[in-house]
Amino acid sequence: MESRFSDFCRSFALSDPHEPAFRVDNPEHKNLRRNEKCKKMDVAIQVMSGLVHKLAANKELSVDVRRKMGRNEEAMEIYKERIKDMKAHYMRLTHMHYTKQSILEDLADNHAILYLDYAPRWNPNGQKKGVSWHVIHAIAKVSGRRVAHYWVHIMKDSEQTSSVVVQILVAALKDLHRMGIAGVHLQSHTAGYYRCEETLFSMNSVSEKTGVQVKSWNFDEEDTAVSPTDRIIAVVQRKMRRYKHEVVTAQDMFDAIVEPRLLGGLSVHLMSAAKEEKSTVDVDDVTDDLSDFAFDE
């Protein structure tokens, strides 16, 4: 919805005339006026908040009534914060949309965008853990044309941790380096093994090891649309279900994907992650509320 009324504007939420934090500087959209319903909503919230506050403080009322009004007063504050949270969520969605669009439109030659995601564990027989596998979808610009490539990394014996994510990324970027890619922009959801200090602070080291410059990492809101990796995940799952043998172990998965022939534009790695080293990062958790990171060259 692209309403010209600020409080009803989902796509550009928001162009709030009173709160600069809830504005999007976008030439395609201007909030020309404020809907009378929006004004009435603000007034209604203020009136209700004031009334509940007075009732909670009125000593002529019974203790039970005042307690109830006190709880209502607390609830009103919670509801107002939830409205702000909703606006902030819409702002992040809008920012995320334009950031992704800008990166794709401005993608330089020999650069790529990588979408990272863990596929659901492969667990056809209800095993205790199942097999962990990770998927990367790359869109690269080569000689002025956009091309796509996928990676599936099947883990023999590891959990889904920051250290494993970094090792997967190193393996994929080494492949990209051999393909002539010089720089990448990363995108993923906000899972802890992605958006954490251990992962993000490793990116300069990853760039040095692979010869591919990690330029940025953008994180999606948790309830946004389907991931670009979903299609290849579905294709690979279908291939494993049709495999002539039972697919239980990591090696079985690898064989099922590569036999009788590998899908075009897909690279598959069977990995055993190196032993994790104790993190030397000693800072407060500064990444929880941030969605976009850029890395120096």
Describe the secondary-structure layout.
Layout: H1 36-57, H2 63-105, E1 111-118, E2 133-142, E3 145-155, H3 162-178, E4 183-188, H4 197-200, H5 203-210, E5 213-219, H6 230-241, H7 250-258, E6 266-271, E7 292-294
Parallel strand pairs: 1-4, 3-6, 4-5
Antiparallel strand pairs: 1-2, 2-3, 5-7
Main features:
2 domains, Nucleotidyltransferase, domain 5, 39% helix, alpha/beta, seven-stranded mixed sheet, disordered N terminus, 7 helices, 7 strands, single chain, 297 residues
Q: What's a quick, concise take on this entry?
A:
This protein is α/β, with parallel strands linked by helices and 297 residues long. Helices cover 39% and strands 17% of the residues. A 7-stranded mixed β-sheet has the order 6-3-2-1-4-5-7, sandwiched between helices.
Description:
The chain has 297 residues and is of the alpha/beta class. The protein folds into 2 domains: 6-104, no CATH class; 107-294, Nucleotidyltransferase, domain 5 (2-Layer Sandwich), CATH 3.30.420. The protein is built from 7 helices and 7 strands; from the N terminus they run ααβββαβααβααββ. The chain has helices at 36-57, 63-105, 162-178, 197-200, 203-210, 230-241, 250-258; strands spanning 111-118, 133-142, 145-155, 183-188, 213-219, 266-271, 292-294. A 7-stranded mixed β-sheet has the order 6-3-2-1-4-5-7, with helices on both faces. A hairpin with a 2-residue loop joins β2 and β3 (145-155). The chain is elongated, with a radius of gyration of 25 Å. The two termini are 39 Å apart. Residues 1-7 and 279-284 have low confidence and may be disordered.
